[in-house]
Amino acid sequence: MKSKISIERKNFVIEHIDSIPRVESHYCRSDTSKQYFESSLNLVKLYELYKEKCENSVPPKIAVKISFYRNIFNTEFNIEFVKPKKDLCDICEKNISNNSNDLNYQNHLQLKNSIRIDRNKDRENTSLLTICFDLQKVISCPKSFVNNFYYKWKINVFNLTAHESISKTVFCAIWDESVCGRGGNDIASALIAILERIHLKYLNISEYNLWSDSCIAQNKNSIMSFALTNFIKTHENITQITVKFSAPGHSCV
To answer: Which of 15, 19, 36, 246 lies in the 20 to 30 Å Cα band around 234?
Structure first.
């Protein structure tokens, strides 16, 4: 006969899971209530931390089995472990899984390849200043694999990285969530800060060529357009900024 797990032991499992700080996923998910643990964690690691906490309690507690712990995690919480972005976009995923080869899918692949070729040509053109920029995945700080660090409150850090094609120099704009977030205004401000540095380096260049992904919330919006227009107006030697976007789901930056 199986012994029933007491409410006290069940609550201790819930308290332990609740004690692990959540982190933001790289991609905006304002339309969901799902929360995330950092990618260095998994259910087995989480259970090991729980057992260690049981052993270090005063008095020591008897740990529940991993099957019970997993059931509490799956039924009482709406949490996932952060995973890298999937390699396939929605269109590719749908057509590959269905072994489809229709005309729309072929046009999609042709667009993806042609945009990547165009990007490569821009970067190889030594007479053209091409700047590719992208937001790095969210950095959770402090970051450590020491067990106690998993219980520390973690702050989200953001890093907008840009690469210019002439000298192959990389520029980074780094800030944390106490300063601002990662919406359209924030990304536009970070990009303008980077362009100001690049402008000082290339005062003789009047045309900029920008490449980014097609994220509407961060790059493909009126806020970014206004920021770049204002940048041109405040720098007399700059006459043109051309903005190019990767195919949705196939970032080439």
So the answer is: 246
